[in-house]
From TrEMBL:
Lineage: Eukaryota, Fungi, Dikarya, Ascomycota, Pezizomycotina
Reactions catalysed: (S)-2-hydroxyglutarate + A = 2-oxoglutarate + AH2
Compositionally biased region (Low complexity): 210-223
Record carries keyword Flavoprotein: yes
Entry EC no(s): 1.1.99.2
Keyword Acyltransferase: no
The name this protein goes by in its record: L-2-hydroxyglutarate dehydrogenase, mitochondrial
Species in which this protein is naturally found: Trichoderma gamsii
């Protein structure tokens, strides 16, 4: 059981009982771990790896599934985003830009497969063209991300059959990555630093501890107790940690609701994205193709992406569902996807498209909220929760969460310890 594993770690390592000065003057002196990170997706892995680099500390990563990264982290487009869709002041922009730079550096340093493919955003009418002009102005004047207009001659000669009747905008720093390879790399770096990965350990309850004294009355000021099950229906183990990081993705709201009073409970909404594989050899496309974003769509449109072998796939669309476990690709949505794809790739062979896989985006708002140009835009939530000690809460971490993961890890470190090398304020390409 996890509790026994924690006890063995305590016996075998002089670092497992962390001195209070490593976090705060009120943290539990003999907690099993300094940090407990809940959620073994790419964001949780990045956070755990980053925190494990603190000297004389210990970190446990708690994942409910038998393997890391089986939910949103492995059911996406595997795109390294440039950070061009959201407002200058949003966390999605700041963390994506910083995270993109860090991600390319990590992939190159550790041999994680990736490629800087670039992408075109294509417009077919005046309204879509206006959307691209807003993105261009944001990139040029506010966030410093390189983009360029693609002229009509280049579209006709080098566009590989792509239609862009109202223009195209190129994002040269966009790329693709092997998400599974990335997560295995982060897991290896974390374990090499002494981190403990607890798989098949769903969290059942969390208790914020406090001594009740006048100087340490905040919940969590004496650490955190976490009850986990040894698999579905298994025995319950309890571990303690000085700090708690909720990076549970699709389960993050459930973790949040375990801690806060009912009046502060939140609801998560689920936007399913269906992906379609493409078996034809024509047209041959060498870059990513995205339709111009449209307000209220809930996503970035049914776009064309590539895997590292150069194979084309399309998706995701947006299908609002009630169950986060609804991961069967919906074949009935193929005709609608074909219609969207033909707007920018008229030569696509509809007979070569088949449903492939599906993923779920964790949304903090129902249908109707999307980009920063929308009134109901919902940003990432990455914060130390007010009224608690040692709890960093991450909610609504959807796209561009994979690209942002390493920068999110830096931000969590900053929230806990107040300083770091490189911060999310460094918003430059």
């Amino acid at each position: 059981m996890l509790a026994r594993r924690a006890a063995r770690l305590a016996c075998s390592s002089s670092n497992s009982h962390v001195q209070v000065s490593h976090f705060s003057s009120t943290a539990a002196v003999k907690a099993d771990f300094t940090h407990a990170v809940i959620g073994g997706g790419v964001v949780g892995l990045a956070i755990a790896r980053h925190l494990s680099r603190h000297s004389s500390s210990s970190t446990v990563l708690i994942e409910r599934h038998p393997a890391v990264g089986t939910e949103t982290s492995s059911r996406n487009s595997e795109v390294i985003h440039a950070g061009i869709y959201y407002g200058k002041s949003s966390l999605k922009t700041k963390l994506c830009i910083r995270g993109r730079n860090l991600l390319y550096e990590l992939c190159e340093a550790h041999g994680v497969a990736h490629r800087r493919t670039g992408k075109w955003l294509v417009a077919q009418n005046a309204a879509q063209r206006e959307g691209l002009e807003k993105i261009y102005a944001l990139c040029r004047d506010e966030i410093g991300v390189p983009v360029r207009w693609v002229n009509q001659k280049e579209i006709e000669e080098n566009g590989e059959g792509v239609r862009a009747e109202a223009g195209a905008l190129e994002s040269p720093t966009t790329g693709i990555v092997d998400s599974h390879g990335l997560m295995l790399c982060l897991q290896g770096l974390f374990e090499d630093a002494g981190g403990v990965v607890a798989l098949g350990s769903p969290v059942k309850a969390i208790r914020a501890l406090s001594s009740g004294g006048p100087s340490s009355s905040k919940p969590g000021s004496s650490g955190w107790e976490i009850d986990v099950s040894d698999g579905p229906g298994g025995d319950i183990s309890t571990i303690t940690a000085e700090t708690l990081i909720n990076a549970a993705g699709l389960g993050a709201v459930s973790i949040h609701n375990m801690i806060v009073p009912p009046s502060q409970h939140k609801q998560l909404f689920y936007a399913k994205g269906n992906y379609f594989s493409y078996s034809a050899s024509r047209p041959k496309i060498s870059r990513l193709i995205y339709p111009a974003p449209e307000p209220g769509a809930g996503g970035l449109g049914t776009h064309l992406t590539l895997d590292l072998a150069g194979r084309i796939r399309f998706g995701p669309d947006v299908e609002w569902v009630d169950d986060p476990n609804d991961l069967t690709p919906n074949a009935s949505r193929l005709d609608q996807a074909v219609a969207e794809i033909k707007k920018y790739l008229p030569g696509v062979d509809a007979g070569a498209l088949v449903p492939d896989y599906a993923g779920i985006r964790p949304k903090l708002a129902p249908k109707g909220a999307a980009l920063a140009t929308d009134k109901n835009f919902n940003d990432f939530i990455v914060r130390k929760e007010e009224g608690y000690e040692g709890w960093v809460n991450l909610l609504g971490i959807e796209s561009p969460g994979l690209t942002s993961s390493l920068a999110i890890a830096e931000m969590v470190d900053q929230l806990l310890y107040g300083s770091q090398t490189g911060t999310v304020e460094s918003v430059h390409a």
